Amino acid sequence: MPIHDLSYRHWRGRRSERPASLVLAWSQLRLTMRRRAVRWLLVLSALGVLVCLGVVYLETMPRDSPLGVLRGLPQVELDGRSLRIFLAFQRVVAYFIVLAAGAEVIALDRRTKALQIYLARPLGVADYLVGKGLPIVLLLSLTSWVPALALLLLRSIASASLQWLRDEPWLPLAILAYSLLLILPVTLLTLAVSSLSTSARLAGAQLVAVVIFSTAVGRILSTLTHDDAWQLLSLDANIGQVRSWLFGSGLPHDVSPWSALVALLVLSTGCTLLLLRRVRPVDVVGGS
Question: How many domains does the chain have?
Fold first, then answer.
């Protein structure tokens, strides 16, 4: 889609040595962190971390301490089960964070006609999408693998040993794999939905509708047909199924976790194709 502009002149200055995508990502992150809702949601996420830190303290404290009698309680233990519950709580917070921070990232650029300026060379489509997606990835990381691995590290430091991981040595890899399967589809879905609208509020409503509607449809059809395969239509159900599988707990639905992985891959691929269709470069053609 060429744009003819008689007043256009090519910029002849020197480019920054930093990648264009990182410059855009830093700018977008600063704008995102100015939103009060995002900061409060990060505080809420930190409260979940503090609760787990309390569990670590109770688990590693000496038995002769005033609260030492609580050390032997089954529920006061940092293991695969407690981490799974922790990550389930963090996933809910992550949904609200992408709603508050991610729904507007492309929609505002479309409304202000800034998309054409961003995509003027030398900034390409990949640079633009990476720059817009990195802040979302960072925020989702702060609510998933970053605090979970930090808890594992602190638990190991507090006990001065890695023996407590002997029964569940796969926990670090499970955390990383689950976080990847959460962050990638949610980020791509957020960007894709944002690219469909020029209104941040409408994009947010569409994002909520996609998550809630898919979950509702999956549950209703599964109940009516007595077949849990319909749960594959739900983003949240697929992520929960994969989480339970990775952490070695009972599966919430009678569906193969590999099918849930394929559903997440299909969703990510579809969102990527939609982004490539909605976010296109433009050529600025100088007049004679």
Answer: 1
